[in-house]
Predict the 3D structure of the following.
Amino acid sequence: MFSPEGPTLRELAVQALSSVERGYDLLAPKFDHTPFRTPDTILDAVASALGGLGPFDDGLDLCCGTGAGLEVLEQVCRGSVTGLDISAGMLEVAQKRAESAERTGGPRVTLVRGDARALPFAPTPAFDLVVSFGAFGHFLPGELAGLFAQVRNVLRPGGRFAFPVVAPARPGSRAYWALLGFDAVMRVRNAVWKPPFVMYYRAFRLADVRRELTRAGFDVETRALPEFGRRPDGSPRCRLVVATCTS
Ligand SMILES: C[S@@+](CC[C@H](N)C(=O)[O-])C[C@H]1O[C@@H](n2cnc3c(N)ncnc32)[C@H](O)[C@@H]1O
């Protein structure tokens, strides 16, 4: 599952018994060698889809980690690029990456430590595009309304919130049982161990996401990402959710 540069099983176990923030601080130096970093295939497909909707001025990567989504913003934003994350360790790695990209002519990137549930940018809307990759499993379904309201508040009128969503695993498939098993282990872990480490793969459902985005004041559309093809029933394997601020 991991390359030789990735974390050992022991390191992963220690991280999983920490809080989300501390766990990512510990994982940060090796994070880019794990499958948890959003793969380039997804980043490229999203950049290509957003290219058709842009250009945008100011972009924010919510829960930016080591900076995977910042690479997307650098391609589609002509103003500023900002990354926000709760983990100082992840931001440190993102900062090094941004500095080396700047040296080769990339835009200036600002990194901000903060909680996505209480964004430190209000009261003035500051962005035209907010993206997020691979982080929604860290939020409980009951937190989505608040999270989306935060994003809504930092977007200018007509601004967009965009993120990829992979189709849920087919019931009975190996991936289905693997994700079900992972979530079950995390539920047991969180029932018996503090601090909690919230990370559930199956809690983020497109129907709930649509409903909560609409309630938060977004017009919601989804676009198939053609690079990933379709399932036997014709539905896309991966979609881009594009939520537009209605005012
Ligand atoms: C799986 S990583 C994804 C990182 C990056 N977006 C990527 O695709 O490679 C999840 C990230 O979400 C961050 N995160 C989790 N909860 C957060 C919160 N409440 N506010 C801000 N960042 C958070 C973690 O610190 C971590 O960097």
